[in-house]
Each structure stands twice: as C-alpha cells, then as structure tokens.
Amino acid sequence: MKNKSLRIIPIGGLGEIGRNMMLYEYGNDILIVDCGLMFPQHEMLGIDYIIPDFDYIRKKREKIRGIIFTHGHEDHIGAVHHLIQEIQAPIYATSLTIGLIKVKLRRNGYNRKIPIHVVKAGSRINIASYKVNFFHVCHSIPDSVGLGIETPAGLIVQSGDYKFDHTPVDNWPTDYAKLVEFSQKGVLALIADSTNATNAGWTPSEHVVDQAFEQVFNQAKGRIIVASFASLISRIQQVANAAIAHHRKMAIVGTSMVENVKIAQKLGYLDIPKDLIVNIDHALKLPDKEVAIMCTGSQGEPTSILGRLSRGTQRQIDIKNGDTVILSSKIIPGNEEAVYSTINGLFRRGANVIYQEIAPVHVSGHGGQEDIKLLIHLTKPKYFIPAYGEFRHLKQSALLAKQTGIPENRIAVVEDGQVISFKDGKMRLAEKISTSLVFVDGVGVGDIGPEEMRDRESLSRDGIVLIHINLNRKTGSLHGKPEIASRGFTATQEAEEILRQAQKPIVEAIKRSNGNLERAITKTMRGFLYKATHRRPTIIVTISRI
Amino acid sequence: MKNKSLRIIPIGGLGEIGRNMMLYEYGNDILIVDCGLMFPQHEMLGIDYIIPDFDYIRKKREKIRGIIFTHGHEDHIGAVHHLIQEIQAPIYATSLTIGLIKVKLRRNGYNRKIPIHVVKAGSRINIASYKVNFFHVCHSIPDSVGLGIETPAGLIVQSGDYKFDHTPVDNWPTDYAKLVEFSQKGVLALIADSTNATNAGWTPSEHVVDQAFEQVFNQAKGRIIVASFASLISRIQQVANAAIAHHRKMAIVGTSMVENVKIAQKLGYLDIPKDLIVNIDHALKLPDKEVAIMCTGSQGEPTSILGRLSRGTQRQIDIKNGDTVILSSKIIPGNEEAVYSTINGLFRRGANVIYQEIAPVHVSGHGGQEDIKLLIHLTKPKYFIPAYGEFRHLKQSALLAKQTGIPENRIAVVEDGQVISFKDGKMRLAEKISTSLVFVDGVGVGDIGPEEMRDRESLSRDGIVLIHINLNRKTGSLHGKPEIASRGFTATQEAEEILRQAQKPIVEAIKRSNGNLERAITKTMRGFLYKATHRRPTIIVTISRI
To answer: What residues of A are annotated to the active site?
Structure first.
C-alpha cells in the first residue's frame, strides 16, 4: 500500500470555465467526479459546445469504478451522454441530480440501462479503494453536494460549486459540521471552487433575490416575464413564491425548463401548489396583473423565447406596454453583446426591463473571497488546490489561501492535464496529460479541429473567392474563361466588377506558370484582390482537365 | 424667424456606443458636433470599424457651417478623415483635440489644408446662426468640453463626455459656473451623456487611480508594464507621476501612443520631465526595479503589444517572473473573452497581473447616476434628451431625469435618425431619417452590407462545400465526375469520405433534373450533408459547358 500514490487528474474545468471533470486514481481504482460541458467562445465558430477530452479514461477504461456528480448544472453533468458512450461504470449522485441526468439522457436518445445509485447528502459510500462522503452545500440548484473522499493516501475535500448562504431558498444551509469533522480527521488537500475568487467580500444570499422580486412584483402593473436558466431550480421556486404572494398564476415556457420543473416537483425539490401553474395559452387569456411567465433565453440566444420576444417574432406572445421583464441570471462572459441587444430590443418593444446591473434580481451561486477563506479555515487543509475557474481565478484564490496562512509551496495552481500526486502525505506535481478541447458540432464530436477553425475564421473575416478553370487534357492550355464566384467578399456589384477585372491576370498567370498551376493562380489572385480591396478572402482553385 | 424651427438630428451614438455624431439645423445653417467611430460587434465579421451614415449631410452639403469636436477620443473624432472627404467646413475644437485630429489625418494620408480653428474652453464663438459656448468638463482626456449652443430657438446644452471630478489629474474641474449661467439664461434642452446611467452613485475621481498605482508601484519588485488606450492622455500623466515618485524611468511602446504623447507634450497637456522618458531598448537594459513601460493592447487585441506579450511573441520584450502588468482601462463590452485570455496568458508567463476587477487601476470618465442628476439640477433644462449610450442606458437616464422632477412628456428617449424639432419653446418628434451602419473593411467603405454579413456568418458557422460540374455543351449530359471541395466543414479525412459518397446523389440529381440544375444540385447536396453531419455549410455550384 505504502508504495502507491494517489493521483488527482484534472481533465476539464481547471483554468477554464465549464466542462468540469476530475479523476482520482489510486492503483487500479479510478473515480470520475463530474463531466460537464463548456459553451463555446466567439472564436470557436459554429461550435455547439465543448466536452472534456476522454483520451486518458479511454486508456484506463477497465479501472473506472464510479462516476460521481456533485449537482445538476450543465457545466457538471452536461457531457454525461458522451461519457457513457465511452465507459461503463455506476453513477452516484443525489436524487435531483440523478433526475436531471435522466432527463438529459432521455433527450439525447439514451434508453439503455445504466447502474445508477441515488445517494443522500450526509451519507458515506464505499467505492473500491475510496470512502466517499457526500456533504450538503448551498448552490443555486437544490441537492448540491461537496465530496470528502477518504483515500488510502489521505482525505481529499472537493468543494463542488458552493456558497455559504445562511438563508437559502430551501432553508438547508451548507453542512458546516461535516467540514469541521473533516478538519478533525485531517484534510490532506482541499480542492476549492474559485469561480468568484476575484469578487471581494461574501456572495449575497439567495434571499436578496426574494427582496428584489418583491419590489418588482409590487410595482409591476402588467404581466411579469422572468427569464433564467432552465437548471436554476431555486430561482423557479422563488418566482413561484413571489407569484403566490402577489396573486398571479404562473406559466412556464420552454421544453427544458418544463421538463426540469416536472422532475424537480416529482422528487419534492419544488414546492409549488397544483393550481399555481397554468399553461401558456390559459395565462395569455388572464388579466395582465394576474400573470407571471417564466422562460429561458437569459443569455440572449437569438432563437430562445426571450430572444424572439425582443424582436417580436415569438409565435404566441408579444411584448406590450406595461410588461415587466426580469433577467434573473448572470451574463456568461462573452454573451454581453447578445444579452444587451436583447434587453434593448425588449425596451424598444415597450417592456420595462429589470436586469442584474440595475437591481439584485440575480446573485451568484459561487462563494466570494470571504466564503473561500471560511472554507479554508473550516477544513484546515494541508494542501490547497484552487479549482473551477480561469487561470486568473486560480491565481487569486491561491493569494487568498496564502492570506489565511497556507504556505505558498503547499498551494498548487495548476491547469487541466497536470497530474497531482500524493504519497506519504506529500504533494508532488507529476506528468502532464493531453486534455484538448473536444468540439461538438451537429452530430460530429471532435471532427472539427484547429485547422477547420482557422478555415472558418478566415472565411468569416473576408469571405471566399472561387476560381474554376478547364484545361485541355492534351495541350494543357486554358479552355474557355476562368469561372470566378465569391461569397461574403464584397457587395455583389463591386465584386462582379473586381472579379471581371481579375480574369486577365489569372489568364496571364496560367500562361506564365510552369509549376504548380493552382498555387500560381492563388498567388496571383491574392495579390490582385489585396491591392484592390485590402482584404484577404479565402481563395479556392479547382481545375478540370477535359 | 418665428416660422423656422431648430432641428436636432442624431446621426450616430444615440442607442449605440460609439460613432457619436449630432447635427443642429436651423434654416440654412447646419452645425455638426463630433464624428466618431464604433468598434464592431462579434457578429460584424471581418469589419475594421463602423462610421456614421453621411447620407443626410451629403444632401445638405452646402448648408454645413462648421464641425465641432468635444474631445479627442476615437468615438468622437475617429471618422473625421471620412467626413472631410464628403464636406468642406471649418473645424472647431480645443487645442489638444485639434492636435489629435491632425495626427489622425496625417496617419490616414491627408495633407490637404482644411480650415481649423483652435478654441479655448470658456470662450464663445459665432458660427452662422449659432453662438457656441465651449465649457470645460472633466473626462479621461484633457481639454474636453461641453457645448452651450445658443440658437434662435433657444439654448441647447450638450454635455459631451464628462464626469464631476473634484480631484482631476490636471486640477481643472468641470465649469460649474458656466452651467449655472446657462440655467439662469434658461436651457431649452439638455443633451446629456448617459453612458453610465446604469451605474449607481458617483463615478469615482481619477485620483483613485493614483492611489491604486501608488500601492502597486510600492509592492512591485520587478518591472512594471501598464497597458491602456493610446488616447487616455490623463492616464499617461498618472503613470509618469508614479514613475517619478518611485524612481523609475518610463518607456512608451506603440506608434499611436508615442505620437499622442508627443503632441500632448508639445501642446502642454502632459507634464513630463525630459529625462523621465527613455526608449524601450534603453529601458530593457536598466535594472528591473527602475523601469515602467507603457503600451497599448488593453482590449486583448491579439496583434497588440500586450496581446503578443501574453503569448510570448513580442519581438523585444518577454514577460518574466517578477513583472507586474497593470491593465488600466475598462473592457469595451464584447472584448471580455479577449481581455481575460490576455490576462490568463500573462499570469501563465509569470507576471502578476492587476486589473480593474481586483484593484481600482481604472475609473470611468463618464458620470454615474448622481453625476447625471447633478448636471440636471445645475442646468435646469426644460427638455431632457439622454445621449451616448445603448437604448437601455437612455431609458435609465430618463428615469433619473424623472426622479429629479422633469415631467415624462418633456423627456425624449430617441435613437439615431429621430429628428427632434424645437419651435416656440416646444419640443416635437419630427420625421425619421435613415442612419445605417456603414462598415469599413480594408479600403472599402460601405461596400459590405447585411447580405455579405449573412454570407460571412453562414461561412463561419459550417464552412463551405464547392461543386463544379462540366456539361457537354451539345447533349447537356455530365462530362466526367463532379469536382467537390470543402473548407471549414469537417476534418479533412472525414470530409473526403463524405464528399466521395456525395458523388452518387449529385449525379442522380443531374440526371433527374429538368429545370434549374444549379438549384437541384444545391438542394440534393444540402439534404445529403445535413443528414450526414447535421451541418448546413454554404454550397456553391459552378457549371461549365464544354
């Protein structure tokens, strides 16, 4: 036993936001914690989402003893349907998380039976070499847990997404006692949520949102429309509470949100009276003052319900004067333009729009700087590993740990792929494994790589110009004129004129060329077009020999 | 006289951030105030920048009596070289603003003589029917002014970009006396900067930045690199002050910043001792503790100095452990991903990075909610027109005006193109004129429109597939095989396989078709590719008849 080491392997989510996935490896036993998806950045053109790189686990398929999920948000469960295509292992999670995973699998067409274990927060489960303690944490979805993983090398605490909320929506605070119990046993390492490590102070309680809702519901004279994430189950409860208090019926629009509400209600995580929820057709017939509608689209997605409302293209509902729209969610970095454009559109159509910048209608589910420091003092870890965040968040979290008294050489600021090894109570950075971005685009998983992305980027910047020439198979001389077409290059009329003028230099290049004809034409055309427009469209030359 | 009305015409910057331009029209006299550029949003693929629509002024070329600039930032002067290609009229601005305009014109190759008038803040200039009062305001560039425009229809106050800073860098506070003087004369309408209308409270003084710099310079053990906008002249002064106090030499890198510093120094707007500034080669030879470098790239532009430093591709300078990098500027909305990626890169290369989220190394130059309310109380306008901002900012600013006691029907929340008419002391919304986005891409101005943008968007999403077929000129039957190529569609190997399989359905479509062959092939190919990949690449078919 003494010779073996515990290896912690961050596959995704360390040094980036989203697609969280971490492995624990001890001898022949591997545990997977979470498997989420990441939303694409702007430069990832046309990509639907990004999943963790399964390269490492593919090689160690036989050793995987279990898959644990800490809570039901997309950045922690969103790639589960890709993962179970690769490996067979039992899944462990709390009741609501399992419910949301099942919804996800069903929506993606998986009906195959997989071993699933529902665990309760507060319980301890034996999985191979590990004893896993699931402890309750507050987050913006009910039934979230952190993990105390007892390994032969020592006790590792992984916080999961959390904040210290003393007045959470479900009145279930973070399990402080368990954290102290861990510290009494001795925590070898703490892996801590650092998403909000750059936010000074404490993250406010969800209760703040209740107060903001109260004010908005009090003042609203017409309909109220609340947009949020489909998986922000606690927020749905809060809207329901406000609707009840203000004698409004509630309608939910959007498949994913309807499905999530159904499962959360069924499992007892939403406390909503039966007659509160009406369908949208019914809601639209009620007096405006008696309606609260909840929907998705808070990230300004153009095809979402809110996106369509902001442009007046939603089939059933049209914004009218007197409507109040609440965007009750954060803006995921990169979505600012889309969200603000949606807000501006809603204002233009006559709505009063309330969003985080002007009222606290959303608070984060992640702990701020003081939360992080408290977590450290409660658990008293020997080593500290900041997790879940961009590199700058990890650096800032490390600074906080240092302030609480953890020596710098016991803090590991590492990113995806850096294996961390523990042996004889000592931490060591081991080898690095590859953890590339795996793009999902349509039905394709991983078939779009850097080269295709560069092509798309180039196409998007200056468009494309196509040249086709026919050569006489025998003489090799040009048959007819070059055919030239373009897309996204310049306005149609101007393009026609420029491309017409390009005929001559191309014909000359063909005559001159005595090597690679395609390259000669491309080069000539590139020079000609840059001189004429200062643009560099993608150029494709096709040649037929006839 | 009585029959004429004053018309205020927002051409750019009302309901959007950037490309500010406003007209005043009375009878045969038109005044232009500002002519800025706007940075493209992500969806504006490949665009360099956007300028105001000159359509209206082109028609009234003969009536333009003057062009006034309020200050030297790009969103107020950035399109001047495009404007003076269209019209001939004298330019009026303060000394530093004129200096920066001249730099801009020279950089864009304009040496033609244009009538330019340097005006002093506090002075009053007669221009045709107007008496224009230039009054000093605090902003993040020296020599900024607001305008009190006395027109035959009444006095209009246009704030320009401003905040009420009691401890500005140049010790020159906003001209409160002039604002009160206006209110005593009677202000018909106030056009007020509303950029920060969603920010509660007062915007902090620039002095806050001095304190933050003091702390960072105190703690820095190695080199200090400060990134900011080239036009943030006040910030350059603040860095110089900190460098002097901490016995560091200062080097400036980046053509535009170097040029701006030169002109600001020459005109007396930068107070920098001669021996403080050294060239970069010299700076790099000094001990690390004796160097402060200032550069551009605070928006994470990949080709900027800071962008290259973050990836280790800057020719002269390489980040090393112990460096402190300060990003002393706001993030322009939409640039979040690029800026954070730069920050993460700098951290990875060993720098300690200080940015607005973790320390007040930047404050806004625009007044917040309390500034806006004070401006209203100082000027006591009859009518209120919120300006410079997205629609949501204008709405919020209107709310503030209402709170100060201005009746709702005297507030005009309008966007670009909405002509506002004043006659007999009454405001009326007149007609709307077209003010489209004019894209500048390479040397092309306005040749890229919505159609080309849609093409680029489509190309960027799923790439392109090209099909060329040769038909026998006489029989109309297919000659040889269809040639198929793709870019940015899917990984090369997979694409080859899919495109090979596509040969058959294309050949069949050609045989079947008895109408538009191009359309038949496109339709077949689209269906085939969607089924195979769930993607919708752009499809282009070219046909030669041989």
So the answer is: 193, 366
